[in-house]
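Assemble and predict.
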Amino acid sequence: MDFLNPVVDGFGVVLQPVNLLYCLIGVVIGMLIGVLPGLGPAATIAILLPITYGVEPVSAIIMLAGIFYGAQYGGTITSVLLRLPGEASSVVTVFDGFALAKQGRAGTALGVAAIGSFIGGTVSIIGLTLLAPVVAEVALDFGPPEYAALSLFGVLLVATVGNGGRTKSVIAAGIGLLLATVGRDTFTGASRFTFDSLNLADGIDFVPIAMGLFGLGEILYNLEERHHKVQAPAKVANVWPSRHDLKQSRGAIGRGSVIGFVLGVLPGGGATLSSLVAYAVEKRRAKQPERFGRGAIEGVAAPETANNAAATSSFIPLLTLGIPANATMALMFGALLIQGIPPGPQLVSEHPDLFWGVVNSMYIGNILLLIMSIPMVGIFVRILRIRPAILAPITVLITLLGVYTVANRVFDIFLVIVFGVVGYLMKKFGFEPGPLVLAFVLGSVMEKAVRQSLLIFGGDVTGFFTRPISGTVLAALIAVLALPGVRYLMRRKSAARDKELV
Amino acid sequence: MSEVFDEEALRAELAEDRPPHAGPWSQLGAAVVTGLIGVAGVVGSLGLGLGRLTAPGPGLWPFVVSVVITTLSVVLALTGRRGTDTEKFSRASVMTAIAVLTLVLLALLLPLIGFEIPSLLLTFVWLRFLGKESWRSSIAISVATVAAFYLLFVVLLQIPLPRLI
């Protein structure tokens, strides 16, 4: 049982009071922003990046991770009580959650969602513990061609699976890759796209880009008229679900955990997609599918379990391959780089304290969240009454002053404003900022891998396809990209046949 | 089929809060802007030198990326005109413009007169004019916010922010 030693040591790291405190801070912030509609986990993590400079790496990542999975718990509350999904991953919860609330069973819905989230999260952490070291072990042998293929796979999959038009998302990703080339070329030392500005000589920093596009961009976008009619939240009573409710949602929680874990690992999958799939699966399996949408408890249990499981398992590609599976993981990637720890397969062996500390902190975080979601849910419901108009200027100040403190440079404030405006305009014109930030983060890794591969192959591009792993990854990528085209052709064929029949 | 139906009903309802889409010209405009970025990237990378595949120059990678951006922008211009994912600018967009102005003002004034007065102005404008809070609560909240920031950044964390006091 030697492999368990670092796992146990990881608990030693988490149980240090400082790390417990950061874990608590993280999950409380996550829960809060999950409850408050508007700012998502990606925006919040972006805004808080400057804080992580002054904190130990383990504590910083523990806190940021807590924000991410904490938001999955909090997002449920607004879905159920206000019919307003706090997070994209809680959209499907609205159907049955709000129906239950109207029947006076809001408490039951929240209780089952919290228990489901806890189980889903915990199953996923166990999966992460078992799977991650194995993947990392395999990935240690990866060379530049494999990394080139994997990062291309990651960027394109996130761009095409995510919401928003595919063409636009890939364009955004391309611009992210282009922005990553600003600064000194590591191979030749040439200055690229710096326009002779000293501020750009070392390239554009990740922090202002992330804070601008995700944080400020989202705040500016939300300023515009999106003042939802504020409803009085439904009364919450009886959060402890009955034995009957639990029995009814048992299967949904089990299947949701597995679906969430599997989809969370895939690039572009993540919490939102897995919640949709888990809901659809439950509805298809149900003996009386017409109950769904009218207050079926499984309709709350399945997506809430799945989104939390996915939030946890999406750490696997980041911590073992150094490839972020979604936009929030791209921010984690950036946070690790800030700490001087490049994420990748060597993380498990070279920084076991960080790896296992973060993984094991999730057990603690999930327990804390379960406590906050069931006995303390009333406190968070009260927070729903805070008006977004009051929060906006405070978050803006945190953003602007925060980015200044990173290097005491006013230039960084202007960068955040510029990228904030860009982020706002992107949203107005139907571009998602997620693929851009993800591509920016992976940009330099990807370029380096491609150029090294070209050197290895002696300029022969087909080399990417003939190596077994990179070839498989690229083949899978082509299959995924071709899928909608094939489907479209088949639909047209069958439509044509239908016409002939008429 | 019915789950698709449900979802669409909800999407439609959530979409009600969004302003109307901005039509084909906005799609074309977006394609032109990204296309120009792509072309600028192509020109810039050619200037840097592409090198050869056996010895890639500094411009090769940005060149490939820029060609992809340009090509897809052309695709967007040709096929995306009927898309409905753009939003019209409305009178509310003026609020966003004012908001950006306050941000720029803060960045300009910060090194000159410290963070206190610009921060106070920013929070007040956002609360009173962008958030339509009452005069009294706008004043109270903005003063309290700046005081809290002073306590946190200056007294507790001792971060060297430019300041008056």
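Chain B is about 70% helix and 0% strand.
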